[in-house]
Model the fold of this input.
Amino acid sequence: MKSFYITTAIDYVNGSPHLGHAYEKVLTDVIARFRRMMGDQVHFLTGVDEHGQKVQASARKRGIPPQQFCDEVSQEFRALLPKLNISNDDFIRTTEERHKKVVRQVLQQLFEKGDIYKAEYKGFYSTRQEQFLQEKDRNPDGSWPEIFGDVTEITETNYFFKLRQYQDWLIEFLTKTPDFVFPKYRQTQVLEFLKEPLNDLCISRPRERLEWGIPLPFDEDYVTYVWFDALINYYSAVAELPGVWPATYHVIGKDILVPPHAVYWPIMLHAANIPLPKGIVAHGWWLQRGAKMSKSTGNALNPLDLVTEFGADAFRYFLIREMNVGQDSDFTREQFLVRYNSELANNLGNLVNRTLNMTTRFAGGAVPEAGLAGELEKSLQDLWAKTRDEFIPLCENFQFHLALERAMVFLTETNAYIEKRAPWKLGKSTEAADQEALRTSLATMAEALRLAVALIQHVIPSATEKINAVLGYTPGKVWRDELVWDARLAGSKVAPSLVLFPRPEPPKPPAGAAKPAPAKKG
Ligand code: MSP
Done:
């Protein structure tokens, strides 16, 4: 089996999870489940980033030790995963011993190699962003942009990693590996960034200024800072699992691609003689009215509210159907409801209802054997073959929104087939030909439903499992074999009904508003 190791970014624990965090988990889960369907041996890691100034400050504000603060907030992130039906194999916290040990090993190795050196740094420092600034960060009028808050000039001795020394290597590597970053246009941006000379990376903070970090193994007066700690999680989590590293993909947001994941990380690995991952998938942002959803701007949606209202499947479906991986997307409740009603409740929900209902009414609850396929059946089967053949490469290339669109077209056409065949009319006739057509139509709709369900099970795992159960069907082990149109449902006993995507309650009218007129009869 091919090993496939996939990771999400690890979230900062200085605030609660929001829709952006949830999306990344869902996207990575959809990729992980798809690769399992394709037969890969998948290892899926997610987790939390617990060290640093912000966590230390948030804990102080609450008057509790940072470890206790991390324990509480990390639990919130961890608890979100089962609610979203995420199939991760592991969850890493950067305060765990297994992580700290590897970070210190890598630091020691690079120090001994001469890639880490101590130097005095004199310059401008932003406390809000916790970063040293450069001249190019200034506004044209010489002032510092608002986002940096208070900027002070400081002199401090720190440790630096020789990033600059590896710049040419990285350029060559990226040129030889054109699909290291997905989407491709983002790789072009990385190369653009590398046209300017890199500065060596400051990787430490004096302990008197920051307690909450991993002490440098070669100088305990310092802790390692931010990226050297966080990025190594991908490797530390599996360092003791044979055959998992190198990672296949790191799934991250576009804000942490350049420079952390596309510049620091490959250089760190290369310098430490560790094999590089196959690639990085950089997704876009969920926006609200054009602004990035984030805790600091106060426009973050709580993913759990939507999951409670509509269920994890509907939530997952919307995120994957709506977002073209790499680009940004605006989140609106209206658009959520449009997709929910037209695609899940109408297209899929109706097909399920009709199949169960008509099989129960006209065939005693057992899927009949199909008779000879007519033109209508043949054209639906042709559409199936085309849908399936297009679907797989789309998923392989992270085009899940298009893959789902294809699956929806197939469901729409299946519903249209039922309209044309009108089994309810055939059911009234006693003619042998009509009876055969009835059996064929019932078998066809059940088979089309089974196939559509097999296609989209990585996106809506729980609903598809329920549908298989009411069809009396247990899928086989080899997913690709499931995608063949045949008669394997013949004789299967179906349940009489299943409520999958109930219509959401209409919003309550504001108090005092006029009551709507009663619906006319007839
Ligand atoms: N801790 C760092 C990552 C270290 S990875 C070695 C971090 N944490 S974060 O909590 O700020 O963000 C975690 C992930 O969520 C990032 O990949 C980020 O891009 C993603 N998102 C945060 N807000 C987002 C949206 N509004 N939309 C989509 N994803 C965004 O960065």
The longest helix spans residues 333-363. The mean pLDDT is 94.
